[in-house]
Amino acid sequence: MTVLATPTELARLEALARYAIVEGVPEASFTRVAELAAQFFRAPVALLNFVTSDRTWSKACVGVDLLAVDRQLSFCARTIEQDGVLVSPDLSQDSRFLNHPVVRGEGGYRFYAGAPLRTPDGFNIGTLCVLDYVPRAEVTALEREALANLAALAVEGLELRRAQLEAEREAVARQQLVEGLRRTTTYAETLAAISALSDLNLEPGELVGTAVQLVAQVSQLDWAGVGVLRGGTLEVDTVWSAPDLPPSLLAPLMRQTAAGEGLVWQVVDSEAPRFVEDYPAWPGARADLVRAGLQGAVMASLGTFQDTQYLLAAVRRMPQLWSRADRDLYQVATRTVAGALLRQERERRLAHEATRDPLTGLGNRRALEAALLTLPAPAGVAMVDLDGFKQVNDREGHPRGDVLLRLFAGAFAAELPDDALLYRLGGDEFVVLYPQAGDLEGLQADVLQHLDGAVATARAAGFQEVGASFGVALWSAGAPDPQAALALADQHMYEDKRRRATFRKRAG
């Protein structure tokens, strides 16, 4: 079924077309986002879809093999009609979907949650959705926010993909403009090699250094370096130099300079490379570099990863104009490197969010399972249950319960030693890993001390009836492996909880 082409729908389809994303097979970068959504919701099916005038195209499929369906049969066609997350806890009881062919009958879908993929200019071009074969309770605001955030990350990936496509188109156009010139083939091969670097899973510093070295080897330079700007401190490393580069020039190039002085500082806040053809006459020229014979220079920002910005500086000793081909080479190369760093940062952030508890910021169960695989012996494991949490939820509401969890988690983490690792499993359960733990009695005393401080903080904040039960175990002393130690600590924690309950009952 083709939707009526209203002006709004035509504008939406035009926005979708800019990404050149429909049709074709699913793509790995979007599949990772869908996998995160499925893992977060513990859902068997997750899809990342784009909605055209008559079909819905899947670019990521988890738990189902699907390429395209008629728009009339797509849940997502409804999701793009609204700004927020669309949730149907039980599709078979939802008048909008109960007669849908994939809902009717045994084995059909029962739960659906979808967030629109909203472009920066405000068009919903698709959805990120999760489905289950059993109905669920209402989705929480936190879960809605998580799904919307993952959808926003997918749109960031689309924007990056679009920018990369535009860069590739520009590179092709520039290559055609300089076709016939001696260096065209060499430059094109260099740009292709730089583009391929992003698929090699290199560390950011290695990616940047290799890209600059590739450019330097083909563009008639005497020296090229990478500036690493972190925390207001700039360090410059040589990545390529001509065999006959005199020490009188190398020394001032490597000299530490004050903020704002020298070559690379000129492009810290600039997206475009800066080309200098007559360095001695340039207003920002340094006297020591002029005396050393520097004639031409190019400076460019290579992008940022986490808190580190990478910068390029390259120089020539011979008076020579930067040709159109030279300028195109540096402009496309720097954009390609910056795009690769942006993708690495996005993937790092996705991986980090997949192992974090969104409420407390602690590691989640997935992070704990990974830590247990590499936990060295001997080590201690403590299982902690926050007593009184459910009563706070029932009496004062879930928002107040969330405040308690965040407060307790922060206070408990502050009490722990630097090498201890704290995780939230969900609800009111926490786990602490103590590397290099000693004896069991000492570990019990340490945990009790840490918990007393955290509970005291919670009570001082108005949660007077809160307490904590815990159990501990040692790996290599009573447990054959970390997982067994965790199970043993869990058993001891429930024994402690029962003792506390019995004591309170008798005291009452």
UniProtKB/TrEMBL annotation:
Transmembrane segments: none annotated. Keywords: Coiled coil. Residues 148-175 form a coiled coil. Residues 377-508 form the GGDEF domain. This is GGDEF domain-containing protein. It comes from Deinococcus phoenicis.
